[in-house]
Design brief:
The chain is of the alpha+beta class. The protein is built from six helices and nine strands. It is elongated, with a radius of gyration of 26 Å.
């Protein structure tokens, strides 16, 4: 459960509000920030360009036990974004993508925003019909990372790689296979004096 701050609660109860989705594609060196509003919105250190009516985001489905991807489509694309889509796929694959749900007040200021979906972009395709150009992006959820195995083990070598100087697993191998002897009932009775 998320707790809202005092100013956010006051703003929610005092004025007319609306919601908008903020999409942040964090390409190395030049992030692209778009929003579903018809004006630019500022949140954090990014200005999300208003792209109302220019694109779509597939439904975000959080079904238990099922990890689903996401599709975005943007039409009427500026030339710099088109060049990005035409560029090497290595630039697109693995690029972080975050979708936020923002609460916007009547003055067009973002009051608060929460992460609605988080993942990494996979492919970026271009389709054109002679008049317009559309870029379609597919993305995989970060939740999929939880299903992938780890190459690390509970060993001293891996622990030293992660945290140099930590001796938590130093004696694991020397203690492997050694019996653990617990005090018996007779010893406990003798110590307690009964």
């Amino acid at each position: 459960m998320r707790v809202l701050s005092g100013p956010t609660v006051a703003e929610l109860s005092a004025t007319e509000i609306s919601v908008a989705q903020l999409a942040l594609m964090q390409f190395a060196g030049f992030p692209i920030a778009l929003c579903s509003a018809n004006r630019d919105l500022v949140w954090g250190s990014f200005t999300y360009k208003g792209a109302a009516g220019l694109g779509t985001i597939s439904e975000i489905d959080d079904s238990p036990g099922e990890i689903k991807g996401l599709q975005l489509a943007i039409s009427g694309v500026p030339s710099e974004y088109l060049a990005l889509a035409l560029d090497d796929a290595a630039i697109v694959q693995g690029t972080p993508l975050t979708i936020l749900l923002a609460i916007v007040n009547a003055a067009g200021m973002v009051i608060d925003a929460v992460i609605d979906w988080d993942g990494h972009m996979d492919t970026m395709n271009i389709s054109e019909d002679g008049e317009t150009c559309t870029i379609a992006v597919t993305a995989e959820s970060s939740a999929g990372d939880l299903l992938r195995g780890s190459t690390l083990t509970y060993s001293n070598v891996d622990q030293q790689q992660l945290y140099p100087g930590d001796r938590a697993f130093e004696f694991v191998n020397s203690q492997k296979g050694k019996p653990i002897v617990w005090a018996g009932k007779q010893w406990l009775l003798a110590v307690s004096g009964k």
